[in-house]
Design a protein that fits this description.
Layout: H1 2-30, H2 46-56, H3 67-83, H4 100-121, H5 125-156, H6 161-166, H7 173-176, H8 178-191, H9 203-206, H10 216-241, H11 249-266, H12 272-276
Helix pairs in contact: 1-10, 1-11, 2-10, 3-4, 3-10, 4-5, 5-8, 10-11
């Protein structure tokens, strides 16, 4: 069981590393520039160069920080990001949660606590404001998030992701609930703090948001958790709305992940008060 979880986490981290490279390449294409192409063949070793730089960089603890809480928050965020993958029945994963949808709904709500703790522990007004925004942003879409997630549960009569996928062999839920899919994907963008709903970071408004006081390997944990969450939400989206056989599933996951990058390159940041009106 421990070995299977370790293999799962290793492959997730590798996928996350190359997804960051894919995002930088695609954003460069959208903006008519070259992107990373110096480290290794066509830049394939760029993720390892970035990891080496971040994990060897000095981490400076500020005097006024609540250092224990500030240090603990990124590990908590990373733990939640990896822990959610245990609900998905990957072929080399020995154990997965039986009532996976309920587990996913509960654990997903814990993610905001890491952001709040990081913002409060940094003892910075910009970081704290980013944490407060995280609370308001989560409340604004939480009810719709749960309701839309319950649609495939009712149709498949199961809380297991594997059975939800199998129930779509003859009827794909995406065709029946196309409007629900677009609402779901909008909520997922807010859940993962991606543009145009990246209010928690908000570089133009809050310097860097809740992680403004972080650097080095501590910042790398927050950065990695964000991209792990994107990949996970892509897998969940494909599973509950399309559920096609395992051979096609990776290509659909890549297509949904591409949509995250395409939306970031195409749309400006949404106004914060307009997001709050979604409640």
């Amino acid at each position: 069981m421990v070995l299977s979880l370790l293999m799962t986490f290793i492959f997730i981290l590798l996928g996350m590393a190359f997804f960051t490279l894919c995002e930088r390449k695609l954003l460069a294409g959208f903006q008519l520039r070259k992107g990373p192409n110096k480290v290794g063949f066509i830049g394939l070793l760029q993720p390892f160069a970035d990891a080496g730089k971040l994990f060897t960089k000095e981490y400076i603890i500020l005097v006024l920080n609540n250092w224990f809480v500030c240090f603990l928050a990124p590990f908590f965020i990373m733990f939640i990001a990896l822990f959610r993958w245990t609900i998905y029945p990957i072929f080399f994963n020995y154990y997965y949660v039986e009532f996976s949808i309920l587990f996913f709904m509960c654990v997903s709500r814990l993610n905001v606590y890491g952001v709040i703790i990081a913002g409060w522990g940094s003892n910075s007004k910009y970081a704290l404001l980013g944490g407060v925004r995280a609370i308001a942003q989560t409340i604004s879409y939480e009810i719709r998030f749960s309701f839309i997630l319950l649609i495939p549960v009712f149709l498949s009569k199961s809380f297991r992701i594997l059975l939800i996928c199998k129930s779509q062999h003859y009827r794909v839920y995406l065709i029946s609930f196309l409007a629900g899919f677009f609402i779901w994907f909008t909520i997922v963008l807010a859940e993962t703090n991606r543009a145009p709903f990246d209010f928690v970071e908000g570089e133009s408004e809050l310097v860097s948001g809740f992680n403004v006081e972080y650097g080095g390997y501590i910042f790398a944990l927050i950065f990695m958790a964000e991209y792990i969450n994107i990949l996970f939400m892509s897998v969940i989206t494909v599973s509950i709305f399309i559920g096609l056989p395992c051979i096609i599933l990776p290509f659909l996951v890549l297509l949904v992940s591409y949509a995250f990058i395409w939306i970031r390159a195409s749309f400006p940041r949404y106004r914060y008060d307009l997001l709050m009106k979604l409640t």
